[in-house]
Structure formats: C-alpha cells, structure tokens
Amino acid sequence: MNPEFRRNLWLELTPRRVLLMTIVLVLTFSAAALSGGADYRPAWFAEIFYYFIVVIWGSRNAALSVVGEIRDRTWDGQRLSSLSASGMTWAKLFGSTIYNWFGGAICLVVIAASQFVHKGQFVAGLDVVYFLALGVISQAVALLASLVAVRRRQSHSRFGLFLYQVAGIVAALVVVFLWKAADPTGSFITHKPASDFVQWWGRNLDARPFFLVTLALFTGWTLVGCYREMRVELKMRNGPLVWAAFLLFMGVYVAGFDAWLAPVTATSGWDAVALRLALAASTYAGLSYAMILLEPKDRVLYRWLGGELAKGRVAGFLLGLQGWMMSYLATLVVVVALIIGLCRGGLLADTAVIASAFAFLTRDIAIFVLFQTLPGRRRGDFAAVAVLFALYLLIPAILRGLGLEEVLAFFLPRPTNPFWIGPLVVWAEAAAVTVLALGRVALGDKVAAEPA
Question: Which residue of 80, 127, 154, 238 could cross-link 149, Cys pair, CB 3.0 to 4.6 Å?
C-alpha cells in the first residue's frame, strides 16, 4: 500500500473517530425514521450530511493536504521521498479525506437503500455514481486550487485555504445545479417529455445520461490536472500533449452547443460552422485568460523558448510551451479559420469585429507579461487585472457618459465605419504592448539598480 496513504489511514481512521461518526449518523437516521412524516425521511438527512461531510468538510481537508504539510515544514521531506506523482496525488486526495469518505459511505448506503426501495436498483446505482462523482470533483478542485497556489508561491494563510475550499464548493454547486436542471423531480430516471433533451452537435440527447457522462469526463480531467500539478511540485516536467488533448476536448464539447445561440433552423450549413468556430474560439480565449493568470510568468523560460526557436529546435520549443501559450495558439488557429470563412461570405463587418477581439486578447496577454517583468515586488497579476478592469469597464463607462460612442470600438469589440478602423487601432495597441513586453523579457535582470 502507498505509505503516505497508509499514514493518513492511521491518522484519520482512529477507532474513536470511526465510532463517533458511526454513532452520530446512526442515531440521526434512526431518529428521522422513527419521527415519521415526509419531511423527516432518513434519505433526506443522508443527503444533507453527505453534502456537509464529503463536499464542504472534505474539500477543506483536500485543500489542506499539501498546504498543511508546507505549514508544518514537512513537505520538503515528502517531496524527496520515492513516491511517484500519481502515488502522491492519490494519497493526498483520498488519504486526507478518508474520514470524510467513511461518513459519506454511511450516508450513501441510506440514500441507495431509499432509492432502491422506491425507484429500483438502476436509479439507486446511478444516484450512487452521481454522489461519488460530486464528492470527487469538489475535493479534486480544492486540491488543484491549492497546488496552483503553491506553484505560484502564494501565501498559505487561513484566508487562502478558505479560497481553495470555496473553489471546491463552487464546483460542487455547479454540478448540483446542472443535476437539478436535468432532473427537476429529484430522481435521475423518470418519464420525461421530449423537452428534457439536450441538443448537442445537432442531435437530441437525453439530458440525464448526457449530464452524467459530462460529469464523469470533467471529473477525470480534474484528476489529471491534480496529477500534472503534483508532477510540477515534485520537479518533473509536463509535456504539451495532455493540455493539447484537453483543448481539443473543450473545443469539441463547447462547439456542440451552437443550437443554444440560434434557432435550430438557423444552425445549418455555414451558419452552424461559424457558430461552432466562434464558440470554440471563445472557449480557447477564456482558457488563455485563465492560464495567463494562474501560471507563473517566468522570464527565464521565455528567453529559453526564444533561444530554442532561434536555433530551430522546434521540438524543444513545443515541449516548453505553457498552457496559456497553447491556448492562445489554438485561439489563433480557430479565429483564422473563422475569418477566412467570413471573408469568403462577404461579411467584412463581422470579420473586423472578430479581428479586433483577437487583438484585444493579444494585448491583454502582453499586459500580463509586461507587468510581471517590471522591477520591484512581484504583484504584476493584480496590477494587470486592475488595468484590464479600467480598460473594459471604467473607460467605456466614461466615454458613454460623454457621448463618445464612436470611440468605444477602441476599448471593446464593436463594428466601426469604415470597418477596418477598429482592428487597425486595436492591433496597434496590441503591437505596442507586445513589443514592450518582449523587450522587458529580453532585457531580463540586466537593468541596473537605481541608487537609493
């Protein structure tokens, strides 16, 4: 058995704690069963206790699994052990939460028994799968958030730990919301009208199985993310193939919801292709923003990538790409395909807006890199977010108040007259910020310190 997992078993599943959890839950369910009334069903209390024990409490323990080791100054010793990244991920994710899963298992027995009696074994089995996936994804997101913070060398205060826990709880809330939306009656399999279908890539799919498969896929990707972050923490190098596969998955998955943006009759031919390309481009742009904010901006890595590219070592350059770089390149490929199609259709105004939107993305990424390379204490991400807040919200609000609507296209993706004015100005902004950022990256730490 994994030694770290065994250590957590010894620490978490002590006889006294196991007995206490068992007695409290058994007494609660017995009282609910003997009290009578539909509002006091044991299964209802089992769901409430499951959400508290596995999701809320469990996500905190998962977030604390690595952060707590850093606080106690024992993490360096564990990193030097012979445990692999997969073994460490498994031990931290499920070992630190094994006590929560013990209590959750008791709750699941009550939930499954109630569903088996009232709705059959198939429904009971699917409900068990849902609750298991809900717990895993909430705890995995909390662990992933803590690992990202560790990689960025952020503080491990109680407030930071609370934020990592909130990330897991928010992921669980999204899952619960989609579950209830796909199953408003509260049961997973019921007789449904034709409107309880999801239209994805032009096909009507049953909402509940579609949601269950989606939940399983995103749970798997979250676990993969934890594993890759643990590899980085253990000083291993991640290749680009997994992130490329995730980008392909996200592009295909999100692009299938084109019918949600237009009537079914409008999503045919080039209209459907354009909508799907726009959805994929928007997804990749969002991932670019997320990754440029989360990943460390390492000037040494950037200069090394530039050297590899200058020497013609394409393989080394591709292996060293960060997630935001690959997301940006994916956005570029999809945007180029979309612009070519729009130009062939004579939609020059739409083409100009899309070109402006991609220019804004380029400028914003350059702003993040630029602020991270400025001298002084490293608070570049906060400053970059503040600048983007001013560029996208404050300045446009001022311009609207002054009645300068025609200038808004220089701060937001909007059509202009003539159509090429907007992209020209925005690309000039993007080029200027990109040149400044690349100059700071190339300059590195050679800037002489100013005298006190």
Answer: 154
Q: For tokens 């590219």, what's the residue?
A: 309
Overall domain count for the chain: 1
229 in any annotated domain:
yes
Name the residue with tokens 């292996």: 319
Measured CA to CA, the distance from residue 210 to residue 173 in angstroms comes to 18
- pLDDT tens across 9-49, in order? 999 999 999 999 999 999 988 888 887 655 557 888 899 99
pLDDT bucket at 244, cuts 50 / 70 / 90: very high
Residue 205 forms beta bridges with which residues?
Answer: 198
Which long-range contacts (C-beta less than 8 Å, at least 24 apart) are formed by 45-48? 45/110, 46/107, 46/108, 46/110, 46/111, 46/114, 47/107, 47/111
On whether residue 316 sits in a domain, the answer given is: no
pTM comes to 0.86
Cα 324 vs. chain centroid, distance in angstroms? Answer: 13
Distance between CA atoms of residues 228 and 222, nearest Å: 10
Q: Give the integer Cα–Cα distance in Å for 88 and 90.
A: 5
Q: Note whether 258 and 272 are within 8 A (CB).
A: yes
Whether 199 is in a domain gets the answer yes
Count CA within 13 A, CB hemisphere, residue 72. 10
* CA–CA gap between residue 43 and residue 113 (Å, rounded): 8
Q: What is the mean pLDDT of the chain?
A: 85
Q: Which of 48, 51, 45 is nearest to 31 (CA)?
A: 45
Answer for the pair 67, 21: CB distance below 8 angstroms, yes or no: no
Looking at the chain, how many residues does it have? 452
Contact 118, 190 (CB under 8 A): no
Alpha helices, DSSP H, located in 234-322: 241-255, 270-294, 299-310, 314-319
